[in-house]
Design brief:
There is one protein chain. Helix 1 runs parallel beside helix 9, helix 9 packs across helix 11 and helix 10 runs antiparallel to helix 11. The chain is α/β, with parallel strands linked by helices. It has two domains: 181 residues, no CATH class; 212 residues, P-loop containing nucleotide triphosphate hydrolases (Rossmann fold), CATH 3.40.50.300. The protein has eleven helices and ten strands. A six-stranded parallel β-sheet has the order 3-8-7-4-6-5, sandwiched between helices. It has a two-stranded parallel ribbon with strand order 1-2. It is elongated and about 95 Å long.
Length: 454
Amino acid sequence: EGPTGAVQLKDGLPAPDLIIQDELHLITGPLGTMVGLYETAVEHHCKGPDGSGPKIIASTATARQAREQIRALYGRSTTEVFPPPGIDASDNFFAYEERDPTRSRLYLGVAAPGRSVKAVTVRLYSALLSAAYRQWYNATQAGRSGAANPADTYMSLLCYFNTLRELGGALRLIQEEVAPRSERLADRLPVNDFGKANALFANRRLSFDVLELTSRVSTDGIKKARDQLGEPYTSDLKNDVALASSMISVGVDISRLGLMVINGQPRTTAEYIQASSRVGRSTPGLVVTVHNPYRPRDRSHFERFTAFHEAFYRDVEASSVTPFSSRAIDRGLAGLTVGLVRHHYRRLARSGACLDIDSVPEAANEVAEVVAQRIREHADGTEDLAKIVAGRVVSLVSDWSKAVKSLHDAGVPVSYSPWEASGGRHLLRTAMESDDDEPRLNKFKAPTSMRDVE
C-alpha cells in the first residue's frame, strides 16, 4: 500500500518511450561488454504491452563503427544518424559548424631526442607558466583585471597524464623543480640582452596547492577542484597547476581553461580528442603534447603531427563490445537471469520471494528465450551460441530451485541479496564471498559494479 493520498496506478507505471545515452564512446571494452549483457534485462523490462521497446538516442563526438557498437549494446539492427545530413555539411538546421576563431585550439608537439622527458617537462611547464604570467601582467598594467584579462584563461595549467604513476611523479617535479625555476626564469637572458627587460617571461611564484582530478579524489573533492579552477587569477581561490588523469575527458567542463599539456600520446585517438577538448571552449586554447622520442608510438605521432591533426577524427579506433563472450557470460549470466526472473514475475519481486521460484514453472524457459533472442539480435550467425546460453539459463533456474528448497527444508530463510538478508542466506553472492556450504549457491556470484570485470 502506498502513502496516504497516493494514487495507485491500475496497470503500473508505463514503459519509457525514450532513452538518451550520452558519451556513447565510453561504453566500450570491458565496461561495454557488461553493459551490453545487462541491457538484455533493461530492454526487456522497458517493453510496452505491444512488445515495442523505447527509442534510444545516443550521442558521441568520437565514434567508429557505431552501428556495430549499438547493435552489440542494445540489439538494434537499424541505426540512423541524427540530425540527418543535409545539402550543407556545415549546417543541417539542428546543428552548425562553429567557425568562431575565439573558440579554437592550437596544437603544439614537443619532442627532444637526446634529452630526458623529465628535463623537457620542467622547462616546458616553467616556460608556459612564466609566459602566461607576463601576458597577464601586461594586460593588468593596461587596466584589464580579473576575468576581463584576456590572459586569465592561461593562468591555470592543466596537465594530463596517461597513468596515475606518472601523475604522482609530476607532483614532486612541480613543487621541487618547476616552482623554483619559474621564480627566476625572467632573469635568464642571453649575454647580449643583459640589462634589458625580458619580453617573454616574468618571474612567477607558484602556489604549492596543486589540484588533482583523478579517481583517487572524492566526488566532493572533484567539485571543489572544478570550482577553484573556474575562479580568476585575482581570486583568493586561484590555482596555478592542476594534474588530471583520463577522468578529465569525461564531462568535466570548465570554460575558463585555455592551457593544457598532455604528457605522452594517449592510448587512443578518441581519448586524445576528448581530453584536449577540455580547453579552448570560451577562449582560444593551447594544447601542448610532450612526446617521448624513445617510444615508437609517440615518435610516430610527432613525425606526422600536422597530418594527424588535420584529420584526427579519421583515426578514431573502432569500439570493442562483446556482451556474450564466454568470460562475460561466466561473470554476468547469473545476475542477469535473477534480474529477469525477479522483475518480470510480480509474485517473485519481494525480498523473500526467491523461495517461490517453483510457483512459476514457466520462468526458466521464458527467460531462456529472452536471452537467446537477444543473442540472435546482437550479431549474425549466433544461433548455436543462443542455444548453449539458453541451456545455461535453464540450468541456473533449476539450481536456484533446488538450492532454496534445500535451505527452506532445513529451516533457513533465504533472500535475494546480502543487503536484503536479516539473518539466513542469500541467493546472489559477491565475488569476494567465500564459498557456501550449499554448492549450488556458488553459481550465483554477481558483480556489484560493471567495472569490476576489469
